[in-house]
Specification:
- The protein contains 14 helices and twelve strands.
- Strands 1-7-6-5-4-2-3 form a seven-stranded mixed beta sheet, sandwiched between helices. The protein has a five-stranded mixed beta sheet with strand order 8-9-12-11-10, covered by helices on one side.
- About 40% of the residues lie in helices and about 15% in strands.
- By secondary structure, it is an alpha/beta fold.
- The chain has helices at about 5-10, 40-50, 65-80, 90-105, 120-125, 140-145, 165-175, 185-190, 225-235, 245-275, 290, 310-315, 345-350, 365-380; strands at about 85-90, 110, 130-135, 150-155, 180, 200-205, 220, 280-285, 300-305, 320, 330-335, 360.
- Strand 2, helix 5 and strand 3 form a beta-alpha-beta unit.
Length: about 375
C-alpha cells in the first residue's frame, strides 16, 4: 500500500484493526481487573510485565496495562515516528517517569535549556526525583554534558516565549546522550523531533492532542528499550492514564491536523495585527522558515502589552481567561501568575520571561471576533 499522509494516519492510527472486529468506534475498556482461571500463567506473565516488557494476551490488572490506553500509545507513537509510546496520567507524570528511569539507570545528570513549562522547570531543578541538573544555553549543551548525563531536555517552541531551538544542533552537541524534546506546542502535525535526531518526545496530551479541554494525560514516544524502562516506572509508581481519558485523547488525534491548521492560520493573523497595535511592545511568534522544523508558526503566541497585563486578562469577553492551552476555545493567561509562577522571578528572567508577558492559545473561533476582543481589551474600550 502507498504510504499514507499524516492527515490520513491521524484519523486511522490505532484503528486499523476495527473493521475486522466489526467495530467502528474505538472500544472503551473500563475494567480494573481481568479474570483468569490459570494463575500459574498469570504469575509468569506478571514477571514479564514488571520488567516493562509488552506481553500479549489478556491484561491482569489495569495498572499493568489497558487495551484502550495501548491503542492511544500506538497511535501517537506512529504519528511521532517512534517505535513505542507510553502514556501517563499527566504530562508531569510522563516527565517524572523519564527522570526516574534515567536516575535508576545510573545516569542522574540532566542538561536542560530554559525556558521550559514552569512545573517542568521546577521539577527538574528541585532534585526531588534524585536527578542533578545543569542549565545550559542550547549552544553550550556539549560543554555541559558529563559521563553521568542521562538526558538533555529542551522544549521547542518553548513555553511561553515561543523561542525555537535547533533540535539537530542540540542532538549533535549532546554526543550520543538522548535528547528529550517537549513537543506539546507543535504536536506531530507541525513538527516531528525524531526527524531531527531526538530520541524521546514528550507531550502534555491534555493540550492539543486531546484538543477539547476535557481529558488529562501525558505521553512519551521513544525507542522500545527506553519505553520498557518507562513502563517499569509506571507499574511501580501507578501514574497510569485512565482509559476514559485515553479514549478521548485517541478521538482528539483524528481532528488534530484540522484543528492545528485552522488555529495556526488564525494565530498568524493575530500575531501580525498585534505587531502593529500601538499598545503592544513585543510579539513572540515562531518563524517556520527559521530552522525548517515547523510547517507553520503554530497556534501559540505571546505578547507584551503596554496596558498592565492583569487589566487585559480581566477585560477579555470572548477569549477565555484560563491556564492551559490547546482547546477549541482561545485561552489567555499570565505566565508569571500561573504556568510559570512556581519558577523564581530571577529564573523566569533567565528564561526570557518578563512579568508583562501574556500567552495566547488560539482556538477555532473567527479571527475577526478574536481580534475585536483583543483590541478592546488592549485599548480599554470594554
Amino acid at each position: 500500500m502507498t504510504e499514507q499522509t499524516f492527515w490520513t494516519r491521524a484519523v486511522h492510527a490505532g484503528r486499523d484493526d476495527l473493521t475486522d472486529q466489526g467495530l467502528h468506534a474505538v472500544p472503551l475498556d473500563l475494567s480494573t481487573t481481568y479474570p483468569s482461571r490459570d494463575s500459574r500463567d498469570e504469575a509468569e506473565r506478571l514477571d514479564a510485565m514488571t520488567t516493562g516488557a509488552q506481553v500479549p494476551g489478556t491484561p491482569i490488572y489495569a495498572r499493568l496495562g489497558n487495551p484502550t490506553v495501548a491503542r492511544f500509545e500506538g497511535a501517537i507513537a506512529e504519528l511521532e515516528g517512534c517505535e513505542s509510546g507510553v502514556a501517563f496520567a499527566s504530562g508531569m507524570a510522563a516527565l517524572s517517569a523519564c527522570l526516574l528511569a534515567t536516575v535508576a539507570a545510573g545516569r542522574p545528570h540532566v542538561v536542560a535549556a530554559r525556558p521550559l513549562y514552569g512545573t517542568s522547570d521546577h521539577l527538574i531543578a528541585s532534585g526531588l526525583l534524585g536527578n542533578r541538573l545543569t542549565w545550559a544555553d542550547p549552544a553550550d549543551v556539549g560543554a555541559a554534558v558529563r559521563p553521568d548525563t542521562g538526558l538533555v531536555i529542551v522544549e521547542t517552541p518553548a513555553n511561553p516565549t515561543l523561542a525555537e531551538i535547533d533540535i539537530r544542533a542540540v542532538v549533535d552537541a549532546a554526543g550520543g546522550v538522548p535528547v528529550l524534546v517537549d513537543n506539546t506546542f507543535a504536536t506531530p502535525a507541525l513538527q516531528r523531533p525524531t526527524d531531527f535526531g531526538a530520541a524521546v518526545v514528550l507531550h502534555s496530551a491534555t493540550k492539543f492532542l486531546g484538543g477539547h479541554g476535557d481529558a488529562m494525560g501525558g505521553v512519551v514516544t521513544c525507542a522500545e528499550d527506553f519505553a520498557q524502562r518507562l513502563r517499569q516506572v509506571r507499574i511501580a509508581t501507578g501514574g497510569v492514564l485512565h482509559p476514559s481519558a485515553a479514549y478521548l485523547l485517541q478521538r482528539g488525534l483524528a481532528t488534530l491536523p484540522v484543528r492545528m491548521e485552522r488555529s495556526s492560520a488564525t494565530a498568524a493573523v493575530l500575531a501580525e495585527r498585534l505587531l502593529a497595535h500601538p499598545k503592544i511592545s513585543a510579539v513572540h511568534y515562531p518563524d517556520p522558515n527559521k530552522l525548517g522544523q515547523l510547517t507553520t508558526g503554530g497556534a501559540m503566541l505571546s505578547f507584551e502589552p503596554e496596558t498592565p497585563p492583569h487589566e487585559v486578562i480581566s477585560a477579555v469577553r470572548l477569549i477565555t481567561p484560563a491556564v492551559s492551552l490547546g482547546s477549541t476555545d482561545t485561552l489567555l493567561q499570565h505566565p508569571a501568575s500561573l504556568s510559570h509562577h512556581i519558577v523564581a522571578p530571577q529564573d523566569r528572567a533567565a528564561g526570557g520571561i518578563p512579568d508583562t508577558l501574556l500567552r495566547l492559545s488560539v482556538g477555532l473561533e473567527s479571527p475577526e471576533d478574536l481580534w475585536r476582543d483583543l483590541d478592546q481589551a488592549l485599548s480599554g474600550t470594554t
